[in-house]
């Protein structure tokens, strides 16, 4: 029985893709669970008010400002549609280098773990074949 092997390049690309997905989920979640505030901004007494939605990242601490054109639902302690939609817009705003670095770091770590697992699996298969 011939065992199909996966090339190291393909294994690295798949590991890197897993790292990028995990990095995106991490940066999205730090915005969802960050601090959210609503501000009614009046630039002058003769102008109309603008609603501003501020989000401070949970870990990084940078503040993002959105100017929504829809009704903002209440910003209570839970997760709601405003936080989910706003976080989708914010998670790449200014964090692209961080997402890239974390993606490469996580991908390399996953590649390292997969190589160790593959080596152990191959050694166990060779030991089994040698004893039978």
Layout of helices and strands, plus pairs?
Layout: H1 8-32, E1 35-41, E2 50-56, E3 63-66, H2 81-90, H3 96-131
Antiparallel strand pairs: 1-2, 2-3
Q: What is the strand tally? A: 3
CA gyration radius, whole angstroms: 23 Å
Side by side, the strands of the main sheet go 1-2-3
Provide the succession of SSEs.
HEEEHH
Low-confidence stretches: none
Please report which band the strand proportion falls in: under 5%, 5-15%, 15-25%, 25-35%, 35-45% or over 45%: 5-15%
Class by helix and strand content?
alpha+beta
Q: DSSP helix count?
A: 3
The proportion of residues forming helix, as a percent range, comes to: 40-55%
What is the overall shape?
rod-shaped
Biggest β-sheet description? 3 strands, antiparallel
Distance between the termini: 14 Å
Report the mean per-residue pLDDT as an integer. Answer: 83
């Amino acid at each position: 029985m011939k065992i199909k092997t996966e090339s190291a390049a393909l294994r690295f690309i798949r590991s890197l893709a897993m790292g990028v997905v995990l990095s995106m989920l991490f940066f999205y979640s730090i915005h969802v669970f960050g601090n959210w505030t609503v501000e009614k901004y009046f630039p002058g007494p003769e102008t109309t008010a603008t609603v501003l939605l501020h989000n401070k990242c949970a870990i990084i601490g940078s503040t993002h400002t959105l100017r929504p054109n829809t009704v903002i639902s209440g910003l209570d302690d839970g997760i709601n549609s405003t936080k989910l939609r706003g976080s989708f817009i914010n998670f790449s705003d200014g964090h692209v280098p961080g997402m890239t670095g974390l993606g490469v770091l996580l991908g390399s770590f996953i590649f390292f773990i997969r190589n160790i697992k593959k080596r152990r699996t191959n050694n166990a298969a060779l030991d089994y074949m040698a004893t039978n």
